[in-house]
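Morning run. Coffee first, then this:
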Amino acid sequence: MAKEVIVTADKVKNRKAFVKVVKRALLILLIFLILLYIVLEIIYHEGRFTITLDSNQTLESGLAIFDSTNNGHAKRKLEATPIKFMDNIDGRTIPENVHKEAEGSHNGKNYIAYTFFVENQGNEVLEYFYEVVIDDVIKNVDEAIRIRIYRNDEYVTYAKRNHLDNKPEKNTEPFKNIKESPDTIILEKVENFKPNDIDRYTIVIWIEGPDPDCIDALIGGELKAHMVIAEQHIEQS
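And here it is:
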Protein backbone atom coordinates (compact mmCIF):
# COMPACT_ATOMS: atom_id res chain seq x y z
CA MET A 1 0.00 0.00 0.00
CA ALA A 2 2.79 2.42 0.90
CA LYS A 3 4.39 1.88 -2.50
CA GLU A 4 1.17 2.73 -4.30
CA VAL A 5 0.82 5.97 -2.32
CA ILE A 6 4.37 7.06 -3.28
CA VAL A 7 3.70 6.41 -7.00
CA THR A 8 0.48 8.40 -6.88
CA ALA A 9 2.23 11.32 -5.15
CA ASP A 10 4.92 11.38 -7.86
CA LYS A 11 2.27 11.50 -10.56
CA VAL A 12 0.54 14.41 -8.85
CA LYS A 13 3.85 16.25 -8.50
CA ASN A 14 4.67 15.71 -12.18
CA ARG A 15 1.22 16.81 -13.23
CA LYS A 16 1.53 20.05 -11.22
CA ALA A 17 4.92 20.75 -12.79
CA PHE A 18 3.48 20.14 -16.26
CA VAL A 19 0.51 22.45 -15.58
CA LYS A 20 2.90 25.14 -14.35
CA VAL A 21 4.96 24.92 -17.54
CA VAL A 22 1.83 25.06 -19.70
CA LYS A 23 0.55 28.13 -17.83
CA ARG A 24 3.86 29.91 -18.39
CA ALA A 25 3.84 29.00 -22.08
CA LEU A 26 0.26 30.26 -22.47
CA LEU A 27 1.15 33.50 -20.67
CA ILE A 28 4.11 34.07 -23.00
CA LEU A 29 1.92 33.29 -26.03
CA LEU A 30 -0.76 35.71 -24.77
CA ILE A 31 1.80 38.50 -24.33
CA PHE A 32 3.15 37.83 -27.83
CA LEU A 33 -0.35 37.97 -29.35
CA ILE A 34 -1.10 41.24 -27.54
CA LEU A 35 2.12 42.78 -28.85
CA LEU A 36 1.38 41.48 -32.35
CA TYR A 37 -2.11 42.98 -32.20
CA ILE A 38 -0.72 46.35 -31.14
CA VAL A 39 1.82 46.32 -33.99
CA LEU A 40 -0.82 45.37 -36.58
CA GLU A 41 -3.19 48.00 -35.18
CA ILE A 42 -0.50 50.65 -35.66
CA ILE A 43 0.36 49.44 -39.17
CA TYR A 44 -3.14 49.01 -40.53
CA HIS A 45 -5.35 51.37 -38.55
CA GLU A 46 -3.25 54.39 -37.61
CA GLY A 47 -4.01 56.74 -40.46
CA ARG A 48 -4.68 55.22 -43.85
CA PHE A 49 -3.57 58.41 -45.61
CA THR A 50 -1.11 60.95 -44.22
CA ILE A 51 0.67 64.05 -45.53
CA THR A 52 4.11 64.92 -44.18
CA LEU A 53 6.91 67.39 -44.77
CA ASP A 54 10.08 65.58 -45.73
CA SER A 55 12.39 67.10 -43.07
CA ASN A 56 12.82 69.68 -40.33
CA GLN A 57 14.86 71.70 -42.81
CA THR A 58 11.77 72.04 -45.00
CA LEU A 59 9.78 73.26 -42.01
CA GLU A 60 12.48 75.81 -41.15
CA SER A 61 12.69 77.10 -44.73
CA GLY A 62 9.14 78.41 -44.52
CA LEU A 63 7.21 75.73 -46.38
CA ALA A 64 4.20 74.91 -44.23
CA ILE A 65 1.31 72.46 -44.32
CA PHE A 66 -1.92 72.78 -42.33
CA ASP A 67 -5.55 71.74 -42.70
CA SER A 68 -7.35 74.76 -41.26
CA THR A 69 -7.15 78.37 -42.36
CA ASN A 70 -8.18 79.32 -38.83
CA ASN A 71 -4.89 77.85 -37.66
CA GLY A 72 -2.08 78.28 -40.19
CA HIS A 73 0.54 77.00 -37.77
CA ALA A 74 2.96 74.75 -39.66
CA LYS A 75 2.76 71.04 -38.94
CA ARG A 76 5.04 68.14 -39.79
CA LYS A 77 2.23 65.64 -40.34
CA LEU A 78 -1.44 65.69 -41.26
CA GLU A 79 -3.74 62.67 -41.09
CA ALA A 80 -6.96 61.99 -42.96
CA THR A 81 -9.81 60.19 -41.23
CA PRO A 82 -10.12 56.65 -42.66
CA ILE A 83 -13.29 54.87 -43.71
CA LYS A 84 -13.80 51.45 -42.12
CA PHE A 85 -15.73 50.12 -45.12
CA MET A 86 -15.65 51.48 -48.67
CA ASP A 87 -17.88 50.08 -51.39
CA ASN A 88 -17.19 50.75 -55.06
CA ILE A 89 -18.87 53.74 -56.68
CA ASP A 90 -18.95 55.58 -59.97
CA GLY A 91 -16.58 58.53 -59.61
CA ARG A 92 -19.05 60.71 -61.48
CA THR A 93 -21.29 60.67 -58.39
CA ILE A 94 -18.70 62.55 -56.32
CA PRO A 95 -19.82 66.19 -55.93
CA GLU A 96 -18.19 68.57 -58.40
CA ASN A 97 -17.47 71.02 -55.60
CA VAL A 98 -15.97 68.40 -53.26
CA HIS A 99 -12.73 70.41 -53.13
CA LYS A 100 -14.62 73.44 -51.77
CA GLU A 101 -16.90 71.69 -49.28
CA ALA A 102 -14.73 71.89 -46.17
CA GLU A 103 -11.23 71.82 -44.70
CA GLY A 104 -9.55 68.78 -43.19
CA SER A 105 -11.44 65.48 -43.46
CA HIS A 106 -14.84 65.62 -45.16
CA ASN A 107 -15.41 62.06 -46.31
CA GLY A 108 -18.51 61.16 -48.28
CA LYS A 109 -20.34 57.89 -48.69
CA ASN A 110 -17.72 55.41 -49.94
CA TYR A 111 -14.96 57.94 -50.60
CA ILE A 112 -12.22 59.68 -48.64
CA ALA A 113 -11.90 63.46 -49.04
CA TYR A 114 -9.25 65.52 -47.29
CA THR A 115 -8.39 69.20 -47.82
CA PHE A 116 -5.16 70.83 -46.69
CA PHE A 117 -2.95 73.78 -47.55
CA VAL A 118 0.68 74.35 -48.54
CA GLU A 119 2.00 77.85 -47.84
CA ASN A 120 5.33 79.55 -48.40
CA GLN A 121 5.77 81.30 -45.07
CA GLY A 122 9.41 82.09 -45.81
CA ASN A 123 11.20 84.82 -47.73
CA GLU A 124 12.45 82.87 -50.74
CA VAL A 125 10.90 81.56 -53.94
CA LEU A 126 10.62 77.77 -53.73
CA GLU A 127 10.01 74.73 -55.84
CA TYR A 128 8.35 71.82 -54.17
CA PHE A 129 7.30 68.31 -55.06
CA TYR A 130 4.43 66.19 -53.85
CA GLU A 131 4.80 62.44 -53.93
CA VAL A 132 2.22 59.75 -53.15
CA VAL A 133 3.67 56.46 -51.95
CA ILE A 134 1.83 53.18 -51.41
CA ASP A 135 2.79 51.58 -48.10
CA ASP A 136 0.71 48.43 -48.32
CA VAL A 137 -1.92 46.80 -50.52
CA ILE A 138 -4.14 43.87 -49.57
CA LYS A 139 -5.96 41.76 -52.17
CA ASN A 140 -4.82 43.96 -55.09
CA VAL A 141 -7.39 46.66 -54.31
CA ASP A 142 -5.09 49.19 -56.02
CA GLU A 143 -6.23 47.72 -59.36
CA ALA A 144 -9.46 49.71 -59.10
CA ILE A 145 -8.46 52.59 -56.83
CA ARG A 146 -8.75 56.20 -58.00
CA ILE A 147 -6.79 59.05 -56.43
CA ARG A 148 -7.88 62.52 -57.46
CA ILE A 149 -5.71 65.47 -56.47
CA TYR A 150 -7.10 68.98 -56.65
CA ARG A 151 -4.56 71.79 -56.62
CA ASN A 152 -6.63 74.93 -56.20
CA ASP A 153 -9.40 74.54 -58.83
CA GLU A 154 -7.66 72.07 -61.14
CA TYR A 155 -7.43 68.33 -60.65
CA VAL A 156 -5.91 65.16 -62.05
CA THR A 157 -7.30 61.68 -61.44
CA TYR A 158 -4.69 58.94 -61.14
CA ALA A 159 -5.16 55.18 -61.55
CA LYS A 160 -3.23 52.00 -62.18
CA ARG A 161 -3.01 50.95 -65.80
CA ASN A 162 -5.46 48.33 -67.03
CA HIS A 163 -3.78 44.99 -66.41
CA LEU A 164 -5.21 43.49 -69.65
CA ASP A 165 -3.75 45.92 -72.19
CA ASN A 166 -1.50 48.11 -69.99
CA LYS A 167 -3.30 51.22 -71.20
CA PRO A 168 -4.36 54.12 -68.93
CA GLU A 169 -7.86 53.87 -67.53
CA LYS A 170 -10.38 56.28 -69.07
CA ASN A 171 -9.93 59.93 -68.01
CA THR A 172 -6.98 59.14 -65.77
CA GLU A 173 -3.26 59.72 -65.53
CA PRO A 174 -1.50 56.38 -64.97
CA PHE A 175 0.43 55.69 -61.80
CA LYS A 176 4.14 56.31 -62.14
CA ASN A 177 6.51 53.45 -62.79
CA ILE A 178 9.79 54.61 -61.24
CA LYS A 179 12.43 51.91 -61.14
CA GLU A 180 14.37 53.54 -58.29
CA SER A 181 11.20 54.01 -56.24
CA PRO A 182 8.66 51.31 -57.17
CA ASP A 183 6.21 52.29 -54.40
CA THR A 184 5.86 55.86 -55.71
CA ILE A 185 2.68 56.18 -57.77
CA ILE A 186 2.40 59.98 -58.09
CA LEU A 187 5.18 62.54 -58.37
CA GLU A 188 4.52 66.15 -59.38
CA LYS A 189 6.50 69.39 -59.24
CA VAL A 190 5.26 72.90 -58.39
CA GLU A 191 7.44 75.77 -59.57
CA ASN A 192 7.78 79.46 -58.72
CA PHE A 193 6.11 79.19 -55.31
CA LYS A 194 6.53 82.71 -53.97
CA PRO A 195 6.48 84.00 -50.39
CA ASN A 196 2.90 84.12 -49.02
CA ASP A 197 1.61 81.90 -51.84
CA ILE A 198 -0.92 79.29 -50.70
CA ASP A 199 -1.97 76.18 -52.59
CA ARG A 200 -5.20 74.47 -51.56
CA TYR A 201 -5.20 70.69 -52.04
CA THR A 202 -8.00 68.17 -51.83
CA ILE A 203 -7.27 64.44 -52.02
CA VAL A 204 -10.18 62.20 -52.99
CA ILE A 205 -9.82 58.40 -52.92
CA TRP A 206 -12.40 55.84 -54.00
CA ILE A 207 -12.86 52.44 -55.65
CA GLU A 208 -14.06 52.88 -59.21
CA GLY A 209 -16.96 50.49 -59.84
CA PRO A 210 -16.95 50.79 -63.68
CA ASP A 211 -13.24 49.85 -63.74
CA PRO A 212 -12.91 46.43 -65.47
CA ASP A 213 -10.51 45.44 -62.69
CA CYS A 214 -13.15 46.05 -60.01
CA ILE A 215 -14.11 42.43 -59.34
CA ASP A 216 -15.35 40.43 -56.35
CA ALA A 217 -11.81 39.27 -55.57
CA LEU A 218 -11.08 42.80 -54.28
CA ILE A 219 -13.67 42.52 -51.50
CA GLY A 220 -11.95 42.89 -48.13
CA GLY A 221 -8.94 44.62 -49.65
CA GLU A 222 -7.13 47.53 -48.04
CA LEU A 223 -4.82 50.29 -49.18
CA LYS A 224 -2.45 52.35 -47.06
CA ALA A 225 -0.63 55.31 -48.62
CA HIS A 226 0.98 58.62 -47.72
CA MET A 227 1.96 61.88 -49.39
CA VAL A 228 5.29 63.61 -48.89
CA ILE A 229 5.88 67.32 -49.54
CA ALA A 230 9.50 68.15 -50.37
CA GLU A 231 11.00 71.48 -51.46
CA GLN A 232 13.96 73.04 -53.21
CA HIS A 233 15.45 76.51 -52.90
CA ILE A 234 15.73 78.63 -56.02
CA GLU A 235 18.93 80.60 -56.47
CA GLN A 236 18.15 84.30 -56.74
CA SER A 237 20.20 86.29 -59.30
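The chain has two domains: 1-46, 47-233. Good start to the day.
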